[in-house]
Design goal:
Elements: E1 12-14, E2 21-23, H1 40-49
Antiparallel strand pairs: 1-2
Pfam families: DUF2256
Protein name: DUF2256 domain-containing protein
């Protein structure tokens, strides 16, 4: 049986849209380096806040 890992021991990031910390999830295992937002809602809000450079 594998050793249990506490949630506090998992890597965490801060969401740029809501400024809240979020922890690693199993579904993000393969692309954790590319995960930026904590949720789909924050991703939509974050993308709409970014204005194109003129």
């Amino acid at each position: 049986m594998p050793k249990m890992i506490r949630k506090s021991e998992l890597p965490a990031k801060t969401c740029p849209a809501c400024n809240r910390p979020f922890a690693w999830r199993k579904k993000w295992e393969r692309d954790w380096d590319r995960v930026v937002y904590c949720s789909e809602r924050c991703r939509r809000v974050g993308k709409s806040q970014v204005s194109p450079a003129s």
